[in-house]
Design a protein that fits this description.
The protein has about 400 residues and is of the alpha+beta class. It has helices at about 5-20, 25-30, 75-150, 155-190, 200-225, 240-245, 295, 355-360, 380-390; strands spanning about 30-40, 45-50, 55, 70-75, 225-230, 250-255, 260-265, 270, 275-280, 285-295, 305-310, 315-325, 345-355, 370-380. It is about 45% helix and about 20% strand. It starts with 6 loop residues before the first helix and ends with a helix.
Length: about 400
């Protein structure tokens, strides 16, 4: 059976299909709540001078990462002279220590050489003494046989026995002396000097010990005049004048994830304790601040999934809500590096934590902080927005 459609019917069918084509997109859009008033931000931290001093050796500019290295130093003029004196003293002590170590090494080498020579002499003497002992043994045996045969007297036997005992004691004495010298040689090799070997070596060893103690004391005094200042370090509460007099130098370091935001000083500038030196952001915690009407905040919960897209980018960044605050809540904008410029009186704030490798690595562009963005909150459609009160 053939079915014929008139031109009019065909036209209506085509128009109906065209009209229904956007419905999937519209239905999908109705399931999402899109906010186009957002900005990428991050916490901003300030670094202040730990001491009075002059700024030197600045190695960073805004938009740089220090990678945990020293970015600037401060020198306290009031304590620099004392610190330099301690440095010279430490260098002098170090040189004396090195000289005495070389002198001790020469002493030890000479002692080892003398001990080895003494051992060689004793071993040579031992060879002769052992030969004499063997000879005395043979003579004793012959005299004993002659005594039995009544050819020699008992007096002859006693003389031979005495000579044998004397030769035996000499051999045993020499062996003990060899063992004693070997033991002393082992002690010298281990750095332990016997008291009866060399007074000069012992005096040098005592001098080395004194120098070690003096170096430690000098370093301790230097540590009281110098401190390494790293952000996040907590100082003990000290009187301001005492601290400024003690600390001669200070160095400033930043965390590995820090990106310099502003630098407020220059080389050669004199600053007082507490003056701001610079500020930085933490790129490991990038966020998007979104302005949302108070009425819609009821639909948003911490931990809710959010898709963020920066204007100018085609891809989405996954994120989650970490903070929801109404329009009248106290918000310290000074804690953040960027803030929404245009907000109505009834707009609350929503903070969305994001993680994106591209933003993290774009240090020169401040990791995208300050760029505008829009956010899509899933699970919040038009029905929830306008009729949520009645549906709940």
């Amino acid at each position: 059976m053939k079915v014929f459609f008139s031109k009019k019917t065909t036209t209506w069918i085509v128009l109906l299909v065209i009209a229904l084509l956007p419905l999937p997109s519209i239905a999908n859009y109705m399931q999402r709540f899109v906010v186009r008033n957002g900005v990428v931000t991050a916490y901003r931290y300030e670094v202040r001078a730990p001491i009075d001093g002059v700024v030197n050796n600045i190695t960073v500019t805004p938009g740089m990462s220090s990678a945990g290295k020293t970015i600037l130093t401060l020198g306290n003029r009031r304590a620099t002279g004392q610190y330099e004196t301690l440095e010279k003293e430490l260098l002098s002590l170090g040189k004396q220590l090195e000289d005495n170590k070389n002198k001790l090494s020469k002493y030890i080498n000479r002692l080892e050489r003398d001990i080895n020579q003494s051992l060689a002499i004793l071993k040579a003497r031992l060879t002769g003494e052992e030969a004499s002992k063997v000879e005395s043994i043979h003579r004793r045996n012959r005299i004993n046989k002659l005594v039995v045969a009544s050819v020699a007297t008992q007096e002859d036997a006693d003389q031979v026995e005495s000579k044998f005992q004397k030769a035996d004691s000499q051999v045993r004495t020499t062996l003990l002396e060899i063992e004693q010298l070997k033991h002393r040689r082992n002690m010298v090799n281990q750095g332990m000097l016997p008291n009866d070997l060399s007074d000069g070596a012992l005096q040098v060893q005592r001098r080395i010990n004194e120098l070690h103690q003096n170096i430690l004391a000098c370093k301790r005094r230097m540590s009281e005049s110098e401190t390494d200042f790293t952000t996040g370090t907590t100082y003990q509460q000290k009187p301001e004048t005492d601290r400024n007099n003690r600390f001669a130098r200070a160095s400033v370091k930043l965390p590995d994830t820090a990106v310099v935001w502003e630098v407020d000083v220059q080389n050669g500038m004199e600053v007082a304790k507490g003056d701001r030196l610079l500020s930085y952001i933490d790129r490991s915690r990038l966020m998007v601040e979104v302005a949302i009407d108070d009425a819609t905040l009821e639909l948003i919960e911490p931990g809710q999934a959010v898709k963020v897209r920066l204007f100018g980018r085609s891809d989405f960044i996954e994120g989650k809500v970490i903070r929801v605050m109404g329009s009248a809540g106290l918000w310290h904008t000074s804690l953040f590096a960027a803030d929404i410029k245009s907000r109505s009186s009834r707009d609350g704030r929503v903070l969305v934590l994001i993680k994106d490798e591209n933003l993290y690595n774009h240090v020169g562009k401040f990791c995208g902080v300050g760029r505008t963005a829009y956010a899509e909150f899933e699970g919040i459609g038009l029905m929830e927005q306008y009729f949520g009160v009645f549906l709940r």
